[in-house]
């Protein structure tokens, strides 16, 4: 029986709302769908990955500075159309690379922790589990409100709840699995942020600021 007859596709909005508001039941549904990585990427991750670059670009050009994030990652760096475009491209491509790399890493870590699945399911776990992170990009419309992006930390809970149903990680090892994957995600995020700052510095150094 075709997958779509068992679990019809949700719209992006419906899936995002379901994974955030009722993650336990939605992870069970996603596990039953068992869709290929390419479909999850094209129909969900790619569209949502555009939110932050687009909103940050509009916010930067409107307010004259770029909101990178919260706390030590927040930096009101003056911007130009060239630096904004460069940063948007870096963040978009960096986000996709980070999610793909994190999915492969999560698959390996899951196996190491007794998990029974990987591959497409690992990408689905990371892709759907990153929903709060991707949606939080909307706050970049107003750089001074970038600290509200901390709501993205809800993604840690989604990862924790999805590890067992998606990858078969034993319940007693889910916490350790989550900590390891979140640590890797944090490192990747810092790298992307540093690349955007480097882009700004290079643009300024070239006299294009």
From TrEMBL:
Localization of this protein: Membrane
Membrane topology: Multi-pass membrane protein
Keyword Transmembrane: yes
Keywords attached to this entry: Membrane, Transmembrane, Transmembrane helix
Transmembrane segments: 44-68, 88-110, 122-141, 147-167, 174-196
Yip1 domain sequence ranges: 19-188
The protein's name in its UniProt record: Yip1 family protein
Organism: Novosphingobium bradum
């Amino acid at each position: 029986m075709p997958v779509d007859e068992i679990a019809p596709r949700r719209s992006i909005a419906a899936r995002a709302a379901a994974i955030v508001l009722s993650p336990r039941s939605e992870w069970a549904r996603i596990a039953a769908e068992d869709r290929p990585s390419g479909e999850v990427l094209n129909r969900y991750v790619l569209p949502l990955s555009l939110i932050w670059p687009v909103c940050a670009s509009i916010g930067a050009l409107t307010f004259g500075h770029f909101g990178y994030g919260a706390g030590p990652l927040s930096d009101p760096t003056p911007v130009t159309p060239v630096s904004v475009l460069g940063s948007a491209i870096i963040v978009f491509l960096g986000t996709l690379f980070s999610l793909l790399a994190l999915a492969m890493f999560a698959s390996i870590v899951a196996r190491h922790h007794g998990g029974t699945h990987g591959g497409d399911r690992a990408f689905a776990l990371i892709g759907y589990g990153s929903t709060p992170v991707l949606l939080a990009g909307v706050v970049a419309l107003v750089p001074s409100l970038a600290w509200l992006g901390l709501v993205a930390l809800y993604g840690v809970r989604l990862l924790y709840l999805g590890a067992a149903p998606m990858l078969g990680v034993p319940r007693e090892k889910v916490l350790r699995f989550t900590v390891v994957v979140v640590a890797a995600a944090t490192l990747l995020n810092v790298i992307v942020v540093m690349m955007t700052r480097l882009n700004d510095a290079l643009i300024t150094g070239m006299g294009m600021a």
